[in-house]
Amino acid sequence: MARLADHFLSEEHLIFREQTRRFVQDKLAPHVDEWEEKKHFPGEVYQWLGDAGLLGVTAPEEMGGAGGDLFYAMIFAEEMCRSGSSGLAAGVGSLGISLPPLIHHGTPEQVDKFVRPVLAGKKVSALGVTEPGAGSDVASIRTRAVRDGDHYIVNGAKSFITSGTRADFITTVVRTGGEGFGGISLLVIESNRDGFSVARNMPKMGWHASDTAELAFDNVRVPVENLIGSENGGFYLLMENFASERLSLAFMAVEMAQLAFEESMKYVQDRRAFGKTLAGHQVTRHKLAEMVAGIDLCRTYNYALAARIIAGDNPMMEVAIAKNKSVDMASEVIDQAVQLHGGYGYMREFLVERLYRDIRLFPIGGGTREVMNEIISKMILPR
Amino acid sequence: MKILTTVKRVVDPDAKVRLNSDNSGLVTEGLEAKMNAFDQYGVEEAIKLKEAHGGEVIVVSIGDSAGTKEIRTALAMGGDRGVLVTADMSEIDPKGVADLLAAVIEREAPDIVLMGKLSVDSENNQVGQRVAAKLGWPQATFAFTCEVADGWATVGREVDGGTANVRVKLPAIVTADLRLNEPRYASLPGIMKAKRKPIEELTPDDLGVELEPQLIIQGYSLPPARAAGEIVDDVDSLIDRLQNTAKVL
Predict the structure, then answer these.
(1) Using CA atoms, how far apart are residues B68 and A369, in angstroms rounded to an integer?
(2) Which residues of A are designated catalytic?
(3) Quick one: which of B217, B194, B153, B69 has its CA closest to A15?
(4) In angstroms, rounded to a whole number, what is the distance separating the alpha carbons of residues B222 and B175?
(5) Which superfamily does CATH assign the domain made up of A125-232 to?
(6) ipTM exceeding 0.90?
(7) Least CB-CB distance to A11: which of B31, B34, B68?
(8) pLDDT of A162-175, one tens digit each?
């Protein structure tokens, strides 16, 4: 199908999509069922992707990236979802949320030490924001870093940390100052430091191929040179980071809806009921029509938004709209896809069953639906 | 070493194609297009030859102007420059493709030409053979191995029931089968670099080739829909049906 959204793309983007799709379908997709079942994907996957140059598509060339625009990162996220496991996409994608503060605000030494090895697939990084007692309400995080000479001493805990059980370092949000958003900083904490521990790998509803950790920091001594940007200046860096995370979640949600639609198309043209294929029933055809309409609208909005961000805009409200609308659309489309599959839709062998579990994270992760609506309402109402 | 390789832009083989209203052709508008799968093996082998022997890889395509994407893909994999001969593929037959390609090859005078053994859309499997005949060059088709040394290519060919090893004196035409190699993935830096590599656009007139199709497609039809299966009661009635209804025994 010709896609309106593709008019935002250049020939290079299209070639990149073809090549990435070929890589993901050849190298990753054949293993996805096994990795989902084992609730783990092997560490070599980072190396494969690093060797193929897919881990740093938007990072600057001088840091070992490819210097591509935002569309390349979004296309990579979409194609990773097309492996059939958005959990794999998220596990690999933890670098996409943990590296940007280092890429944009890191010192040359931090770039050499942390950014390059991750882009090459030799180290794993994670982002540590959420705590047992604070998630979307970032300004109230409690993990504390207290200055002691040329070190910080970190105490606290983080939860729901994607790739946290195997990360070599965590880009961690810590409180270095007073209450509220003015007192937080971003600190890189290596997982081999004394006092750092993985409390547990948290079992979860979906995203099975990825790991999700609860981390504990018990008097962890971290050198001051691991601070990203300025002390107590972490909130702004974090907000900047959230925008790209939310946008990728929007793109991923649309691609998951697309997969659910494609699976449904195959199923309804094959499965027969009451003397004809499911596709022969008007109720099915109208469902498919609504799926396509929702997918196309959201995809085109997201692509238009990415084009604006590439052009230099910082559209906070539109990113929130993109996340909420794409995620709600995808949740509905995937729910309908399960329904069209009947009993099979509830069975593990069918992709729509996995999509149904996986999409439930999207209105929660990267800022909840309610937080997105707060952002939107603050933009439209006078204070 | 001067190496010439060819790419054809074809409709994504996984896309569902429809016939146009009078069944004279396929509706390809809006469908995604990509490089013919067999050409990927030809391009990969061309780049491997360049890596081993040095020289230049020229990527040639024939088709509409959108075909620059497939040429750029091959340039992103490691080709050096492209040649696109613009022509309306619906009005051109395998002889026409071979005439155009032979004209480009005469201009470029490569040491070896690597092509896909056939294109997955029309499946004529004629062009490599025709080009070799027209130029009077040796040919080695359906290659699954290819070694070049001292002005000769040694090619393992997949043939019915086994393999054949042949040596062809260069310049020669080699057509690739799917076990020849594992085509590389173009990296994003490669894709960006390919943007700056030159693609020359030519017309059949520029090449002095007059296109007079000798093969004209009369029409297309879809395979007949399969009738529903039938459950028979026992082996005897199965045999009876196979003998007397299906007439296959």
Answers:
(1) 43
(2) 245
(3) B69
(4) 30
(5) Butyryl-CoA Dehydrogenase, subunit A, domain 2 (2.40.110.10)
(6) no
(7) B68
(8) 999 999 999 999 99
